[in-house]
Specification:
Layout (H helix, E strand, L loop, with lengths): L7 H7 L5 H14 L6 E5 L7 H6 L3 E6 L2 H9 L8 H4 L1 E5 L11 E6 L10 H14 E13 H6 L5 E6 L3 E12 L4 E12 L5 E13 L1 H10 L2 E8 L12 E8 L3
């Protein structure tokens, strides 16, 4: 089973406190700094469309790619109320693995948000993604992605967490049990999820394991350079300062090198 397949139905509920609008405003500010204020954006690992919608509202055309059919079905359902509008016409979705996805047209920018790059745990996977992104970018295009920042992860290692949330139909309890593999710079997270139907009282449980890699800037920059990118900036996530040892999340803005 792919990550998020069973998880997809409850994904938006579990992350209803995630401020996609504010994150998109931040991404737009990074794009503006790189002279990208309009055009086409490729959204890798788009999930349920949390960033695609506000990017389209800001005037961009957005093509979202995700390998989870379940997540994409939810993203497409969000377009139904606005299906006839100009906004809906600016958003398209495609089921594909970002490691093998081939762009059919050039993009002004590519984004991979909410730790999509950290899900690429092997160098060969990263190289496939970075190489594909470079091929899909215009010559002056930029690539923006966030990632788990190694110094922050090592300074404040992950620990077991429980999140409980619900609505008028269901109650969801998610237990996250991370295991740190410092030899490979990977965190294996087992999610144990219990869902209770409030009307019937029926409960069901399922489990998913997510593996995420944390990066130290020198290794990440070396991989980007080998794939034909120059790093323009690196910031703590949603800030404009360099990430320090307290920063768990960081983002980079890179531009494809000229031939």
């Amino acid at each position: 089973m792919k990550e998020f397949d069973a998880y997809a139905e409850y994904y938006d509920l579990l992350y209803e406190d995630k401020d996609y609008a504010a994150e998109t405003t931040y991404i737009r500010s990074l794009l503006k700094r790189s002279d990208v204020q309009a055009g086409a954006i490729l959204d890798l690992g788009c999930g349920t469309g949390g960033h695609a919608l506000p990017l389209a509202e800001a005037g961009f055309t957005v093509h979202g790619v995700d390998r989870s059919r379940s997540m994409l079905e939810i993203a497409k359902r969000k377009l139904l109320p606005i299906d006839a509008s100009e906004l809906a016409r600016r958003i398209t979705y495609e089921e594909a693995d970002i490691r093998t996805f081939e762009c059919q047209r050039p993009f002004d920018a590519v984004v991979a948000l909410f730790h999509v790059i950290s899900y690429q745990t092997a160098d060969e996977d990263l190289i496939k993604v970075f190489t594909g992104v470079r091929k899909g970018l215009r010559e002056d295009g930029v690539f923006i992605f966030d990632f788990w920042h190694g110094p922050g992860v090592m300074n404040d290692p992950p620990y077991n967490r429980i999140k409980e949330i619900g609505n008028d139909r269901i109650k969801v309890r998610r237990e996250a049990m991370p295991v740190l593999d410092s030899d490979c710079n990977i965190v294996n997270i087992q999610f144990n999820i219990l869902v209770k139907d409030l009307a019937s009282g029926i409960e069901h449980t399922f489990m998913e394991t997510h593996c995420l890699r944390y990066f130290f800037p020198p290794e990440l920059f070396a991989l980007l350079g080998s794939c034909g990118f120059s790093v323009l900036n690196m910031f703590s996530w949603k800030r404009f300062t360099r990430p320090g040892p307290e920063s768990w999340y960081a983002c980079v803005v890179v531009r494809r090198d000229y031939e």
